[in-house]
Amino acid sequence: MQNRFLAADNFYRARPAQSRLVGQRIAKGCVTLLVAFPLVDYALRQFVHPLGSIWDKVVLLILALVAFNRVMRGHRPQAFAWSKYAGWYITYLIALLFMGLGSPGTSFDGLRADVYDMLFGLLLPFVVEPEDTPYFLYIAAALAMLIGLDGVLQYILAVPIPPGWVDVGEHVRTRVFSVLKSPNELGAYMEMMAPLIIGMGLAETNRIRKWIFLIGGVICLGTLLLTYTRGAWLGLGVGVILVALAFERRLLAVVVVLGVIGFFLPPIHHRIMDLFSQVYYIKSSQGGRLVRWQQAFDQLAGSPLFGAGLGRYGGAVASDKGLSIYSDNYYAKVLGESGLVGLVLFFALHIRIVVELVQRVVRRASGYNRSIALGGLVGVLALLVHDVVENVFEYPPNCLNYFLMVGLLLLWSRTFDGQEENHG
After folding, report:
1. Residue 326 β-bridge partners
2. Which whole-number Å values give the CA distances from 368 to 44, 212, 241, 244, 412, in the listed order?
3. Which of 129, 382, 401, 408 is most solvent-facing, going by the fewest CB within 10 Å?
4. How does DSSP classify residue 78?
5. Alpha carbon of 85 to those of 44, 89, 122, 414: distances in Å?
6. By C-alpha distance, which of 87, 117, 98 is closest to 309?
7. Three-state SS across 116-154?
8. C-alpha dihedral sign at 155, 236, 230, 42
9. Is residue 71 part of a domain?
10. What is the pTM of this model?
11. pLDDT (tens digit per residue) in 372-417
12. pLDDT > 90: what percent of the chain?
């Protein structure tokens, strides 16, 4: 039976495309830069600042031109099923933009923050050939392992951190952040990539590559722990439990192991138990998450269906303009600024993404492919759960990575029929 499935060696040596599409090399180079976004963006902003602020816009423009050129030449790849739901959400946000023309700058910035990274995912079917997706997943995994190793080194060196990153009375060696510059954002990045990397390691037949991926995945999990980001721990735990209950009960052992580690390591144990303390509840009620979430409902008082308007609540735009603090819950941010209609459309979009991943990737993957599919699904669910307690989608590296990984996994699934035919 094994010869029916894609061998791991073939995962990295994808078959060449049957036809060389226009702009293939340019598109491949641009998508490679995107999957390496955290490192590329950090390096350009640190050392070539003018380019660092515009390079991703240039990449988006190039990919859009390549896609337009291909479509005009008759190339009509199938769009993702979730694209329709994204279209409804974007259309609604554009309508809110025109409703908020009294403050056009704020409304436009709010629209850009909500849809910009999504555009890259929508373009993927038109600029990436399914046979090339293993290459991009390999690059993404290699970069995540490198960032994970950097995080471990930061902990060993006890890199100094701002006092605000540690709760009062808490003693930790450091909270690692690497090139993402925030432990919360690094935790979100690791919770999405670590399961995928481990899945790729389990799928490998080459012993050296298998150990590289498995060790790299463990390093990424270690870095996730060392960020001391409770939202990322929660996201990964819930993601693993949901996938285990639905598809693979043996994954529950992973949750038990991680739970035991968390219980016996004092810094992690203290950080988790602090959530249940009276002090944390008082702090959260006075100026923390509880009061911030309550403010989301206050924003609906004037307009329950349509909210306060784009850029006016809960996110980076509202914070920069002095209109609101961060909501520390991306769904509360969506509710506060775009109302119940916006929240329903936003939920519909991401539920459709999860359903499509389950239908197109997980249920159709078998043999060597299944662990990769399950790892990818765990990471997507983890990030969506994490958004309950953080504005994860406000941070470009994580929002972009989410739509890229979703798109690449769905495109990869389009090679399954050909793989079964060739190995049958």
Report:
1. 314
2. 37, 17, 22, 18, 13
3. 129
4. P
5. 34, 6, 11, 21
6. 98
7. HHHHHHHHHHHHCCHHHHHHHHHHHHHHHHHHHHHHHHH
8. positive
9. no
10. 0.91
11. 999 999 999 999 999 999 999 999 999 999 999 999 999 999 998 7
12. 68
Q: How many CB atoms lie within 10 A of CB 340?
A: 14
Q: Give the span between the Cα atoms of 116 and 123, in whole angstroms.
A: 12
- Please say whether the beta carbons of 53 and 168 come within 8 A: no
Does residue 281 lie in a domain region? yes
Write the single-letter amino acid at 219.
I
Across residues 173-191, what is the average pLDDT?
96
- 309 token code pair: 């308007």
Q: Among positive and negative, which fits the CA dihedral 295, 296, 299, 304?
A: negative
Quick: pLDDT tens for 3-30: 333 444 555 444 444 445 778 899 999 9
CA neighbor of 404 nearest in space, from 76, 121, 176 = 121
Q: How far apart are CA 88 and CA 403, in angstroms?
A: 17
Is 356 part of any domain? Answer: yes
Question: Is 174 part of a structural domain of the chain?
Answer: yes
What 312-319 contacts at long range (C-beta under 8 Å, 24+ apart), as own/partner pairs, is: 312/100, 312/106, 312/110, 312/336, 312/337, 313/337, 314/391, 315/110, 315/113, 315/391, 315/394, 316/113, 316/391, 316/394, 317/106, 317/109, 317/110, 317/113, 318/110
Closest CA to 382 of 236, 253, 245: 236
| 3-state per-residue secondary structure call for 218-232 | HHHHHHHHHCCCHHH
Tally Cβ neighbours within 10 Å of residue 53: 12
Tell me the three state secondary structure of residue 241. helix
78-93 per-position pLDDT tens digit: 999 999 999 999 999 9
Spatial CA neighbour of 332 closest among 292, 380, 392: 292
Domain count of the fold of the chain:
1
**Which two tokens mark 221?**
């999990």
Domain that holds residue 135: 85-423
Residue 213 in contact with residue 382, Cβ under 8 Å?
Answer: no
Distance between CA 71 and CA 82 in Å, rounded?
A: 20
